Amino acid sequence: MATATTPGRPPFPPFTRDSAMQKVRLAEDAWNTRDPAKVALAYTIDSRWRNRSEFINGRNEVIAFLSRKWAKERDYRLIKELWAFAGNRIAVRFAYEWRDDSDHWHRSYGNENWEFSDDGLMASRFASINDIPILESERKYHWALGVGSMVGTKATARTSANQAQAEDSLPEVAATRSILRVFNSAFSQLRVLALTRTNPLPSTSPCIHLGHRHRR
Fold first, then answer.
1. In the CATH hierarchy, which fold is given to the domain comprising 17-198?
2. Average pLDDT for consecutive 10-residue bins of the chain (216 residues)?
3. pTM score
């Protein structure tokens, strides 16, 4: 349940496609503010994270982590996209661009698994991220700092139809959606190949991942 100091965050689980997409957009908008204290309020007091190789426990550690992150990752701009959902879980893929203290630009690609409490606060977040260096001329995200990729449009007002249309109208976002699809397709193929070689599953065995079965 939500506490007196931390109200619940709709939409609440179990998620539908539209409510899961809304949750993703709200998270995208919040992270683009680069405000650690504000972002942390979307997570439970005892939230558990794995971000890359770092393990984070509790909201205070979340705030400390995000403060370090955005001190390092300057001019941070992020997009997130719904990948899958079931019950109180959502899987997301994302990409963001940032500049380091030597003025070198990077683009980071990643996947997140989220699990929510009944009050809509995120209880678990597990993120795997890879970075690539880019030239400043290769940047794709140019919207104003502090807002989401939808240029400040409130996530609560978006539907799945107008969201897709609006995002595709932004060249830098549409291009990155395409890159993300290629990246995740390649990642999925490598993962299936690795599982087949090291720990093959019987053709009837379920893959415990957001309620889907492993396809062979």
1. Nuclear Transport Factor 2; Chain: A, (3.10.450)
2. 71 98 98 98 98 98 98 98 98 98 98 98 98 97 83 40 45 61 59 48 37 36
3. 0.71
